[in-house]
Amino acid sequence: MKFSEVVGHSKIKQLLVDETKSNRISHAQMFLGQSGIGKLPLAIAFSQFLLCDNPTKNDACGECPSCTKVQHNVHPDLHFVFPVVNSKGVKSADDRRKDWNTFLEQNTYFNLTNWLQFTDEMGKSPQIGVEESRHILQKLSLKSFSGKYKIMIVWLPEKMNIAAANKLLKVLEEPPEQTLFFLVCDSIESILPTIISRTQIVKIPTLTNDDIIGYLKSHYQIDDSNAQTIANLAQGSLVEALNMIKGDKSQHIYFDLFVSLMRAAYAIDAIKLMEVAENLAAQEKENQKNFLLYGLHIFRESLMTNYLGKESDNLRIEEREFLKKFARFINNQNITLLSNEFNEAYYHLERNANPKILFTDLVIRLTKMIKKGV
């Protein structure tokens, strides 16, 4: 992957290029940021730039033998470490390397959930174990094939168990010559502070709406209105936007369901509430998750409309008309309660909660919150 193929992040790309030109590349860098914003593609593109035989001023050539090997995930100097579900015959990333290569060929932007869905291991707990550390040491003990760098990309180092983390720490303290570590991280809370202190942190910002809209329109048959709505809901994550595309390209279904739900909750119409709950429970899982994200989006826009007193550019015409009447019901008395309920429902959906029970409980709770403070 070339830098030019990575969506957005022009400043980060230039930072990495400048690092290379000045020959001041830190041996361990942590690409830190929200899930789904393209940290792994950036790390791969940087690796290809460093390994390229004929790099241009700001990018890899994309045509030399080294570039071709990186693009096909077979370069002998580029290694990947990633979480796997420990099972019979699977103890480390090497045992899943064939699956990983196939997955990378099919997906440029993805998250851990996408990876577990691909391996048919949803609901299980993947980790980077101590066996992985042994493989890391073995690979780094070998001489560089190209005579350039040996690069180890660690995807989601926060999934390392303590034993693996301690072994990695020793390598970071005394790295082999011409060896680079790129740690691609969503969150640093569970990473050993001593590992963090030995890396150069590169904070990756979320993507802009324009970045996401441009990508969606160039890769999918989608109109401006839907692309804008999806970008708003994605909150800077291209992976979230792609998951919405896979779930449902039309956002109107979420608007209609949301309006029906809020009206029934306000009227405390039990029959209509149960109808909406059953409708939601019958949707595909991605549509259910997208609906909850959509609800959070409308709550935020309602609060802004309430307190700023102006229409948002992030809304379609029918949404603006709806908010003229609905926004006054969302205030500082209930916004936290509503947001928590929708976020909690999303959390439990991802962990395979029974959707009928989940949505029935949600719609009943809404009747108490929607009028709060009005």
Q: Enumerate how many helices there are, as a single number.
A: 17
Write down the overall mean pLDDT: 88
The largest sheet is: 5 strands, parallel
From the alpha carbons, calculate the radius of gyration and give it in angstroms. Answer: 23 Å
* Residue fraction in strands: 5-15%
Low-pLDDT ranges: none
Beginning-to-end CA distance, first to last residue: 53 Å
Task: Quickly give the structural class.
Answer: alpha/beta
- In spatial order, strands of the major sheet run 2-3-4-1-5
Question: What's the β-strand tally?
Answer: 5
Number of domains: 2
Architecture per CATH nomenclature, i.e. the level-2 architecture of the largest domain: 3-Layer(aba) Sandwich
CATH topology-level name of the largest domain: Rossmann fold
What is the general shape?
Answer: elongated
The CATH class of the largest domain, by name, is Alpha Beta
> Could you estimate the helical fraction of the residues in percent?
40-55%
Listing every helix as H and every strand as E from the N terminus to the C terminus, the arrangement reads HEHHEHHHEHEHEHHHHHHHHH
- Write out the CATH superfamily name of the largest domain: P-loop containing nucleotide triphosphate hydrolases
Protein model, in words:
There is one protein chain. By secondary structure, the chain is an alpha/beta fold. The protein has two domains: 3-205, P-loop containing nucleotide triphosphate hydrolases (Rossmann fold, 3-Layer(aba) Sandwich), CATH 3.40.50; 251-369, Zinc Finger, Delta Prime, domain 3 (Up-down Bundle), CATH 1.20.272. Helix content is 54%, strand content 7%. It is built from 17 helices and five strands. A five-stranded parallel β-sheet has the order 2-3-4-1-5, with helices on both faces. Helix 9 (209-219) crosses helix 10 (224-234). The protein starts with 9 loop residues before the first helix and ends in a 5-residue tail after the last helix. 38% of the residues are buried.
